[in-house]
Amino acid sequence: MSPWLPDETALAKSRATSFPLIVAVLCLLAAASRPAGAAKTIRCPDGSQRLELDVGTLSLQYSGDSLSATISSIDILRGHLTVGPTSIHQIATATQLWNEYIKGLAAGYNSCAISRAELSEGLTKVYPRITSTAAELDKFRQALSEGRQVDDQRLQQRLDSYFKDLRRFIDISRSQILLERVQAGVTRLLVDFEELLRHLRQQNVLSAPVVVGGEISALAAA
């Protein structure tokens, strides 16, 4: 039986939905250059002006709820996969912090630390790529939940692409410290678990090394 692969026609349709996102961002950028109105006008050190971005509006227009649900489900169904030294669990945890990245984007733009070009890249290029890849990953999730075979190599490639764009969005929003804490926190948990296994073996509770312990050691070392 051939491994299941996502329907390319359906994926093409999902990519087409990124156009409204581009229009929305162009409206945000245009608003930043209009004369002062109801929104607060911000004057940047270079003399340019922009209207304050509302984090609530951004959170609604660029939600990460579906992203988190998809990646968390794949974490449960295919948790043995990794992206380089990064586990799926770490990627799922990082995705759950999406609203914090949106807050960082708004705060950075409103403080003039993030340029209009960076804002545009994040919302009109990176975010559509993330949602498009997540739509592909959701097809894999559906197949896995139904007990069908999937192509793990193709799934791995899609996860690589997803995490690359997620890291780029995190970079633009100046939220790198959050990702570092996620990676450090999960690594600490893995190290603690390996230490527990070692203690149990010393006490002869476990007569032989557990395979998962070796996998955890490799992740922790990375």
Q: Could you write a compact summary of the structure shown?
A:
With 222 residues, this protein is mostly helical. It is 69% helix and 5% strand.
Give the count of helical stretches: 10
| Computed CA radius of gyration, to the nearest angstrom | 21 Å
Major sheet: arrangement of strands: 1-2
Q: Main β-sheet, in a few words?
A: 2 strands, antiparallel
Spans where pLDDT lies below 50 across 5 or more residues: 30-37, 205-222
- Protein structure class: mainly alpha
| Percent range of helical residues | 55-70%
Distance between the termini: 36 Å
Instruction: Give average pLDDT, whole number.
Output: 75
Count of strand segments: 4
Strand content: under 5%
Please describe what this structure looks like.
This protein has 222 residues and is mostly helical. The chain has ten helices and four strands; from the N terminus they run H-H-E-E-H-H-E-E-H-H-H-H-H-H. The longest helix is centred in the middle third of the chain and has 30 residues, at 116-145. The chain is elongated. The two termini are 36 Å apart.
Features:
5% strand, 222 residues, two-stranded antiparallel ribbon, elongated, two-stranded antiparallel sheet, 4 strands, mainly alpha, 69% helix
Which helices and strands appear, and what pairs or packs with what?
Elements: H1 8-16, H2 18-32, E1 41-43, E2 49-51, H3 55-61, H4 65-77, E3 82-83, E4 86-87, H5 88-95, H6 98-110, H7 116-145, H8 152-172, H9 176-202, H10 211-221
Antiparallel strand pairs: 1-2, 3-4
Helix pairs in contact: 2-7, 4-5, 4-7, 5-9, 7-8, 9-10
